[in-house]
Amino acid sequence: MKRYILTLLLIAIIFPVTASAGTAHAEQQKQVLLVYDSLSLGASAEGNVDALKRLLGVFNVDVTTINIEHYEQNLVNSYSHVIILRNKQKDEQAFDDDALMHDMERYTGKYLHIGAKPASSMVRALALKIKTEQSPAVRLTMNGFSNELRLSDELTMIVDAAHDAKQYGSIQEMMSSSTSPYALIKGNYAYLSFYLKGDLSEWAAGYVLKDWLNVDQAGGMYVLLTEVYPFSDLELLREISDHLYQAGIPFLVSANPIFSNFDYPAAKRYAETLGYMQARNGSILIDAPTVSSQTISADLSVLSSNIVSYINFLVEHSVVPLGATAELYWFEDEYYLSEGLRFYDSVIMLPNVKMMSNQPTNRLQVFPSSMYSLELEQWKKHADKSLVIEDMPFNIALTIDMLKSADEAKQKLEWLSEAWVLFRDYKLESHSVTTEQAEVVSEKGTLRLNGNDLQLKELYIEISSEHVYIEQKEASFEKLFTVQNRIFIVLITIVLIVFAVLLWIGYRLYRKKYVE
After folding, report:
1. How far is CA 22 from CA 110, 365, 481, in A?
2. How many whole angstroms separate alpha carbon 166 and alpha carbon 290?
3. Keyword set for this entry (predicted)?
4. CA–CA gap between residue 200 and residue 138 (Å, rounded)
């Protein structure tokens, strides 16, 4: 009987572990191959490849990106999911895609197509009929969000499809008022009419991707303050954090790092301000350091130690970073990943502004927690502030640039305060930052530093501007005084000798005169 009970206990213990391992294995098999035919520089589709990679990164999947020109036969068979993104216009010379289309006919994994010329296997599976319009004017609608598009080039739309395919959103042609679904899913196949950076489709495609990738996760809305530097208007930052706190809006801060002069008053004021914002329900993230043409060619071996020193500096001032923000190319670069981002398990991928790669790859690194960033001004074009928003298919951070004018920043805060959006607290989720000296963890709203609960700073402490920036060495006059003393002794001795000689001569003269 005891053996029977022990056997049952062992099965109960081992089975969940096995199930978890199986789940983890299944997650590891979720490898996505993204094949595109053009970057469409100068066209309406410019930037959509990078935007799609950032969106896929939110769903915790490995993404490998290649140009269709470099496709090798049977490559798709190494991936569980394949995305083909068509950007080329009709009048553009197309690359030979026979090998890819031949492989897609026999491909048994999940296949998502965006734009024109889907593989025949998808056309049959979805009973798909599409058309391409030149310079269309359409309105895209998705789950209460809406966006009007007026393009100068081509746009592909669905004409007909299988009735049992799941439909997503709608596209209304402004001239004819006819409507068609924006996207379809049936079985392993998914089709998106188009995907453009800067409009609603940039992030609304996430509704389709989540179901196609079979990702079971809930998302929400966050507020992210970007471009925060030591030379920023720190008083304005504290004022904004007070405004958000009073409005009941949690927020994140992307803080630019410093790597030296930690004892300067400016550095201490910066840390005090971040600590104050943290106490106002803010979560601190470390922004990736700026890479310039000088640093890219110089010795970057100090990157890791510099970031560690900054993390330790923040921790010493009771500021606990919970993750990192960086431009997309950081997550496709072996060096930046190993030396700059290895301390974090939570990140936010920002759009590329200026790529300064060091060891670039075509593979996007996966992080346990990731978030899609979107400028607040772009979001406002698609979402009315009266729209009630609680959940989203994935996490979205609305960014506010703190280098803009104070009036502009305050106007954006007013819009956030009036919007019917339930903004989430980043600290409620699990995040960790680990170095050899410090381990920072957030869980269910609690911040822990090296295993101990962190006491937040409620008050801002003014830092004195008095500081000795160049330490002056104490001047040593010992040697000078020693030389002077010896000179004086010699002079006095000589004077005494001369005086004694004169006294003796005078005595002799006086005595001689007296005797005479």
Report:
1. 20, 22, 83
2. 44
3. Membrane, Signal, Transmembrane, Transmembrane helix
4. 12
Least confident of 274-278, 361-365, 413-417, 479-483: 479-483
Within 10 angstroms of residue 132's Cβ, the number of other Cβ atoms is 14
Mean pLDDT across the stretch 38-62?
Answer: 92
pLDDT value at position 477? 57
Q: In what order do the strands lie in the sheet with 452-453?
A: 431-434, 439-443, 446-449, 452-453
DSSP class per residue in 362-409 = SEEPP-SEEEEEEEHHHHHHH--TTS-B--BSS-EEEEEETTS-HHHH
How many C-beta atoms lie closer than 10 Å to residue 80's C-beta? Answer: 17
429/447 Cα distance (integer angstroms): 11
Structure-token pair, residue 174 = 């402004």
User: Which amino acid is located at 279 in the chain?
Assistant: A
**How many CB atoms are closer than 10 A to CB 424?**
19
Q: Supply the pLDDT for residue 475.
A: 47
Residue 462 is predicted with a pLDDT of: 59
Q: What are phi and psi of 40, to 5 degrees?
A: 55, 45
For residues 102-114, average pLDDT: 95
Among 168, 209, 176, 184, CA closest to 129: 184
Instruction: Please classify residue 317 by burial: count the beta carbons closer than 10 Å to its beta carbon, then call 0-12 exposed, 13-18 middle and 19+ buried.
Output: middle
For residue 489, what is the enclosing H or E element?
helix 478-515
Closest by CA to 214, choosing from 194, 188, 192, 193, is 188
Question: pLDDT for 33-43, tens place per residue?
Answer: 999 998 988 88
This prediction's pTM: 0.82
pLDDT at site 108: 93
Q: Dihedral sign, CA of 103, 108, 109, 115?
A: positive
Structure tokens at 330: 């950081």
Are 429 and 93 within 8 A, CB to CB?
Answer: no
SS (HEC) of 152-191: CCEEEEEEECCCCCEEECEEEECCCCCEECCEEEECCEEE
